[in-house]
């Protein structure tokens, strides 16, 4: 026998059977209902605080609820962590387990409770589930069944995994927590759900019920779960994905003489994802920044193709979305980013919660990785990849091409990226360095044109290359833009480039495709591509 003190009663562990073949550990939680009331935690499931008797007469001492989940963590703390000091390798072994819960509440609240909910929660984790209703009174079967289930779970897995799953799913089945759900509950959920929750088909239901239907916390948990799922699929750390927003909220500057500006002015801005250094002119007559010129060029391209429904892929903090919403011709905007922090910042800057219902209906923000096909991206008139491709490792670029050009297939795609040749004009940018620490490569004009023409040919698009920003006679403009249009030049309304036209001159060029080919693209990278 073992006894453990908890904040709401005593937990007893005893072993009805302990042999070389089988060991049964029974946990009995002896709850003091009066103590619960005194601590302000005994209002009862569905009970009203104005109904005093409900605080004393409830199912807390009898049903496997969130109280039992807390007791599991108190009693089996090292087992839940997968630690066994006396036999270190034992905790890592999978073994046949059977768990019996004599009385489990499984309230649906419109979410399909009962035995069906138990199966939905546990079967995807590899458990064989037995769930039978407990009669109100076996002596009087005509009284019918109670809302409680006797649950049996059988499976082969690590004990630590089984306990972590119970710790999360018991409160989910209970549908009510005995304590205030604070923001740190998100961390507890994700810690206990590591390795199984992100891929669970009912993760939204689990997060919502575990967090007592506090939707702000649920949304935060879902964003982090999606980030973990994408990171695992890419075999990377989640922090590598969620790096679009500087935690400090500050912008760093490298000072030096800017192109065309006085010495000592900010020359290179430490940018978040999707931004590049911008020349700074004299304060007296400040021209539009490069970011503003880039957004204007994108809006011009979208007007040219007549796009009304636009997907901003890699939307960052929502600057382009804000510009799109100002254009009455744009009826719908979808913002997609892999960074949950960037999406939260975008929602705050766009003031989504304060928008009118009509305006809010025009915009939606979703989390996703652009290197995976996503049905949510289909059906849009145009997609924008503004300062996005350079943040990908070059071997991942064909996957983005397939997801956007091959599967989503909008009528038009606008891509902007830095022109590496122009970097020599940034006097504070060391030679050989890219403009942002997260840039995996930066292309010169010939490399960008080669990539755009190959991608267009592979997926049945035509493409026009345009400069963005002030033109330099030697190195071109600081940003280069590619406008892809689905179909042949006649269908797209564009003409092939005149013979001899070169992207290195800074003039617009067109790649014409007369026979669309939707097969898998060539995975080779443009010659001379920077793999940093």
From TrEMBL:
One Pfam family it belongs to: Methyltransf_12
This enzyme's EC code(s): 2.1.1.386
Keyword Metal-binding on entry: yes
Top EC group: transferase
InterPro entries tied to this protein: Hen1, Hen1_N, Hen1_N_sf, Methyltransf_12, SAM-dependent_MTases_sf
Domain Hen1 N-terminal stretches: 1-225
Highest rank taxon of the organism: Bacteria
Key words of the record: Magnesium, Metal-binding, Methyltransferase, RNA-binding, RNA-mediated gene silencing, S-adenosyl-L-methionine, Transferase
GO molecular function, one term: RNA binding
Listed Acidic residues bias regions: 236-249
Segment forming the signal sequence: none
Chemical reaction(s) catalysed: small RNA 3'-end nucleotide + S-adenosyl-L-methionine = small RNA 3'-end 2'-O-methylnucleotide + S-adenosyl-L-homocysteine + H(+)
Name of the protein this chain belongs to: Small RNA 2'-O-methyltransferase
Provenance organism: Kitasatospora indigofera
């Amino acid at each position: 026998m073992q006894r453990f003190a908890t904040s709401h009663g005593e937990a007893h562990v005893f072993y009805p059977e302990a042999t070389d073949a089988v060991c049964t550990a029974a946990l009995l939680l002896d709850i003091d209902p009066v103590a619960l009331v005194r601590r302000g935690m005994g209002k009862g499931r569905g009970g009203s605080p104005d109904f005093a008797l409900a605080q004393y007469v409830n199912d807390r001492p009898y049903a496997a609820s969130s109280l039992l989940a807390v007791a599991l963590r108190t009693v089996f703390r090292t087992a839940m962590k997968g630690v066994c000091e006396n036999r270190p390798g034992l905790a890592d072994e999978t073994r046949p387990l059977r768990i019996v819960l004599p009385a489990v509440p499984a309230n649906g609240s419109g979410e399909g409770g009962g035995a069906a909910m138990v199966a939905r929660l546990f079967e995807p984790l590899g458990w064989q589930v037995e769930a039978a209703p407990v009669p109100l009174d076996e002596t009087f079967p005509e009284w019918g069944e109670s809302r409680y289930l006797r649950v049996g779970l059988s499976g082969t897995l690590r004990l630590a995994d089984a306990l972590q799953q119970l710790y999360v799913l018991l409160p989910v089945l209970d549908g009510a927590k005995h304590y205030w759900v604070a923001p740190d509950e998100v961390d507890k959920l994700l810690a206990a759900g590591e390795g199984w929750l992100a891929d669970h088909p009912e993760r939204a239901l689990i997060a919502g019920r575990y967090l007592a239907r506090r939707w702000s916390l649920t949304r935060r948990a879902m964003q982090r779960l999606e980030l973990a799922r994408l990171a695992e699929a890419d075999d990377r750390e989640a922090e590598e994905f969620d790096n679009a927003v500087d935690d400090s909220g500050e912008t760093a500057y490298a000072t030096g003489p800017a192109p065309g500006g006085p010495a000592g002015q900010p020359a290179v801005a430490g940018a978040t994802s999707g931004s590049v250094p911008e020349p700074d002119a004299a304060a007296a007559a400040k021209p539009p920044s490069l970011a503003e010129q880039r957004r204007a060029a994108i809006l011009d391209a979208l007007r040219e193709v007549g796009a009304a429904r636009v997907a901003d892929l890699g939307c960052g903090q929502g600057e382009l979305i804000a510009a799109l919403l100002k254009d009455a011709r744009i009826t719908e905007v979808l913002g997609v980013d892999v960074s949950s922090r960037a999406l939260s910042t975008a929602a705050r800057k766009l003031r989504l919660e304060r928008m009118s219902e009509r305006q809010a209906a025009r915009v939606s923000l979703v989390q996703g990785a652009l290197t995976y096909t996503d049905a949510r991206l289909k059906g849009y008139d145009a997609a924008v990849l503004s300062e996005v491709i350079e943040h990908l490792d070059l071997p991942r670029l064909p996957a983005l091409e397939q997801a956007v050009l091959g599967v989503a297939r909008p009528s038009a795609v606008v891509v902007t990226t830095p022109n590496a040749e122009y970097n020599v004009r940034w006097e504070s940018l060391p030679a050989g360095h890219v403009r942002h620490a997260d840039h995996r490569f930066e292309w010169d004009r010939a490399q960008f044109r080669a990539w755009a023409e190959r991608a267009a040919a592979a997926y049945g698009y035509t493409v026009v290359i345009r400069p963005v920003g002030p033109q330099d006679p030697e190195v071109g403009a600081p940003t280069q833009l590619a406008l892809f249009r689905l179909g042949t030049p006649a269908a797209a309304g564009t003409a092939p480039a005149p013979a001899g036209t070169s992207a290195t001159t800074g003039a617009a060029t067109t790649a014409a495709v007369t026979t669309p080919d939707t097969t898998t693209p060539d995975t080779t990278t443009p010659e001379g591509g920077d793999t940093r």
